[in-house]
């Protein structure tokens, strides 16, 4: 009998113990659900996963607790992985504080939030014990892996490995020439993909400016994607590290070289924002939506921009012929690019190269054209003329000033790098900008080379609070602040698409399509798609161009949707002949009729935004603007491809439609119609147009190649007519009900 009682007692204890551990495991699982997607994070084990539904196939998994590669007080390098300390609090609320420990080195807390758009690690605090260690690198997603679990060890000199596992990765424009954004897990090899401002200095595939900085990446497959991105500008150089097909974020700090903050505690506010969606771009859109637009931000009206780089890159420097050329195409602004200065970063015009510089600026303005000025963010050539010394520059471990250039060719022409933590450097950046604003009164300042600074292995600002991605961010902020103190409506133009830069800049340029190498159509399409992420951030988007006129139509068909036309084209052909009207006409039409509004949303229509099955492909797509409580399709690009009918429109060939009012393209009282090839367009048109005019480089005439019948308008353009046609303006009388 006693034995029977003992067995029953044992079974009850085992049952209770199992129930206890099961309850503990359930308590440690922090969950977030969005539609049919389920995110679950066992914080105690630091194992998170994303599945299409609870219990469904896992498309991403890995850890999210931070870890550190440090140099401790004894001069030894160590790996510290944050673990849960003690007992977790209840995980069912909106906000959870997770207690952490880092071995015997310190303790901390992590503040975790559920938000309508996703998941937020809003605060990470670390309190060190004893002597403050120096952080060499901080990681999100790294983990120790038992030696017997690693069959093939990748090239990696750390006692831990990246831990994120997914079939696919998406990093906008990770590779530029030719462009690629989606990768299978084994496509990368063993790279460090710069997500911020350190592109060519971080051993990453070359990408000059656009779209960096992005500061986020997506992982997933099929219909489940997770986007993980910065919630604030990181104090380290941020990269996606891939080793053996597994990934993690690394924040390169190198405090062992440059010193650590002396405080016993460290705080990272808004460390990460995590969103999930059925597509990578959908997850990115939710990430962007987590950064609300500042209602007080004032953005001046945008302009069509012609940049002198198209000729100056060929070392053909006369300004007035460029001004005459762009006037004929109704460009509204001429940007004087590098090398207008005596030396890069001086802010002084080179009167040897441009002896009539100030008279030329007046000449441009007499054409009722504004000017813009190129300005470097962090590079300078002549430090003595700027009144700067070694203590105002980023130096290496030997105290020698670092040099940088666009492709990091060690024997190429190079420039000194400004240390924004120097009071004299900060004063120089602002006074240079104010002087340019006072003397030249530019309507726009184009900022360049914020992405070309030395990485922290080479050199870093002396003040830790300006290190990593914060260095270029702070320089852009200082320049923008100085410029707007003179003219609050000056446009600050930059390249990167990170929403963290949106409060600083007014316009983002897709940069020169020369970086896309020989695939302008696909490259500009992908860049346009990623630029559309900014469409709700109160930032204008400039479509830019390639260096070749023969690829310009593809650029302009996307520019119709993006908004502001931009160009770095030459004003003559390669052999010196004049540019034919068949090229100029389309530029003229887009310059005349582009949408000047800033807030919009993309309508993808029959386009594909990319997946693990196929890269992005823009076919027909549109621009949605919000008027009177509803989304209105105000611009539309129609490519022939394999679809002949869309939204009750029939067509052959390639076309662009741009409403000149706040109505949809199928109901506009003033509709611009731009043909990009021979073909026929048939669209709804409730009333017979009162007037249809044709625009070309010679002026405006009445059009005769259109007809109207039973509520539909037809326009036909032959190959012969195309060469002499910029576009048509269809004007109708609107009867208000």
Automatic annotation (TrEMBL):
<dbReference type="InterPro" id="IPR017853">
    <property type="entry name" value="GH"/>
</dbReference>
<keyword id="KW-0732">Signal</keyword>
<dbReference type="InterPro" id="IPR013785">
    <property type="entry name" value="Aldolase_TIM"/>
</dbReference>
<feature type="signal peptide">
    <location>
        <begin position="1"/>
        <end position="25"/>
    </location>
</feature>
<keyword id="KW-0326">Glycosidase</keyword>
<dbReference type="InterPro" id="IPR050985">
    <property type="entry name" value="Alpha-glycosidase_related"/>
</dbReference>
<protein>
    <recommendedName>
        <fullName>Alpha-galactosidase</fullName>
    </recommendedName>
</protein>
<keyword id="KW-0378">Hydrolase</keyword>
<dbReference type="GO" id="GO:0004557">
    <property type="term" value="F:alpha-galactosidase activity"/>
</dbReference>
């Amino acid at each position: 009998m006693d034995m029977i009682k003992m067995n029953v007692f044992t079974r009850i204890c085992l049952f209770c113990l199992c129930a206890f551990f099961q309850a503990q495991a359930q308590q440690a699982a922090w969950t977030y659900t969005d539609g049919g997607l389920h995110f679950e994070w066992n914080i105690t084990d630091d194992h998170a996963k994303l599945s299409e539904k609870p219990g469904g196939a896992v498309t991403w998994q890995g850890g999210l607790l931070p870890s550190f590669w440090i140099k401790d007080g004894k001069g030894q390098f160590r790996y510290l992985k944050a673990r849960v300390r003690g007992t977790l609090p209840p995980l069912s609320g909106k906000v959870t504080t997770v207690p952490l420990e880092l071995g015997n080195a310190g303790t901390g807390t992590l503040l975790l939030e559920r938000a309508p758009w996703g998941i937020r690690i809003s605060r990470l605090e670390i309190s060190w014990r004893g002597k403050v260690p120096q952080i060499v690198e901080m990681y999100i997603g790294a983990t120790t892996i038992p030696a017997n679990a690693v069959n093939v060890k990748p090239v990696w000199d750390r006692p831990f490995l990246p831990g994120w596992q997914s079939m696919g990765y998406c990093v906008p424009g990770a590779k530029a020439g030719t462009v690629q954004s989606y990768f299978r897990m084994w496509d990368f090899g063993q790279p460090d993909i710069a997500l911020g401002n350190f592109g060519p200095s971080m051993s990453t595939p070359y990408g000059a400016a656009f779209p960096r900085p992005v500061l986020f990446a997506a992982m997933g497959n099929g219909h489940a994607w997770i986007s993980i991105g910065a919630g604030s500008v990181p104090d380290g150089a941020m990269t996606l590290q891939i080793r053996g097909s597994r990934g993690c974020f690394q924040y390169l700090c190198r405090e062992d070289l440059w010193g650590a903050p002396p405080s016993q505690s460290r705080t990272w506010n808004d460390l990460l924002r995590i969103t999930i969606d059925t597509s990578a771009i959908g997850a990115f859109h939710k990430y962007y939506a987590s950064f609300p637009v500042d209602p007080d931000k004032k953005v001046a009206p945008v302009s069509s921009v012609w940049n002198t780089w198209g000729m100056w890159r060929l070392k053909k420097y006369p300004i007035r012929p460029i001004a005459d050329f762009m006037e004929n195409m109704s460009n509204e602004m001429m940007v004087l690019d590098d090398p207008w200065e005596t030396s890069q970063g001086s802010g002084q015009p080179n009167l040897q190269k441009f002896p009539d510089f100030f008279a030329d600026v007046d000449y441009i303005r007499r054409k009722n054209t504004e000017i813009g000025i190129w300005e470097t963010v962090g590079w300078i050539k002549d430090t003595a003329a700027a009144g700067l010394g070694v203590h105002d520059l980023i130096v290496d471990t030997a105290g020698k000033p670092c040099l940088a250039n666009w492709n990091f060719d060690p024997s190429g022409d190079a420039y000194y790098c400004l240390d924004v933590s120097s009071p004299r450097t900060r004063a120089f950046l602002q006074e240079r900008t104010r002087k340019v604003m006072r003397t030249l009164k530019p309507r726009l300042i184009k900022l360049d080379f914020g992405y070309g600074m030395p990485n922290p292995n080479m050199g870093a600002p002396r003040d830790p609070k300006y290190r990593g991605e914060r260095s270029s961010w702070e320089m852009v902020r200082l320049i923008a602040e100085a410029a707007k103190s003179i003219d609050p409506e000056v446009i600050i133009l930059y390249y990167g698409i990170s929403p963290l830069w949106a409060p600083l800049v007014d316009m983002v340029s897709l940069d020169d399509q020369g970086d896309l190498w020989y695939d302008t159509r696909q490259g500009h399409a992908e860049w346009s798609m990623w630029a559309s992420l900014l469409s709700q951030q109160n930032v204008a988007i400039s479509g830019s161009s390639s260096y070749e006129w023969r690829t310009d139509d593809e650029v302009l068909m996307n520019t119709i949707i993006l908004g502001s036309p931009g160009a770095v084209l030459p004003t003559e052909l390669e052999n010196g002949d004049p540019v034919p009207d068949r090229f100029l006409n389309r530029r003229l039409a887009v310059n005349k009729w582009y949408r000047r509004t800033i807030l919009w949303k993309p309508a993808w229509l029959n386009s594909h935004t990319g997946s693990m099955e196929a890269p992005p492909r823009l076919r027909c797509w549109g621009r949605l603007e919000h008027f009177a409580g509803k989304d209105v399709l105000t611009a539309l690009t129609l490519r022939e491809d394999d679809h002949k009918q869309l939204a009750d429109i029939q067509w052959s060939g390639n076309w662009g439609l741009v409403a000149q009012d706040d109505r949809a393209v199928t109901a506009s009282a003033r509709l611009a119609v731009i043909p990009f090839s021979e073909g026929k367009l048939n669209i709804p048109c409730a009333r017979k147009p009162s007037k249809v005019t044709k625009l070309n480089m010679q002026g405006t005439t009445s059009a005769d190649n259109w007809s109207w019948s039973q509520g539909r308008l037809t326009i036909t353009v032959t190959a012969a007519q195309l060469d002499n046609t910029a576009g048509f303006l269809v004007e109708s009388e609107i009867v208000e009900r």
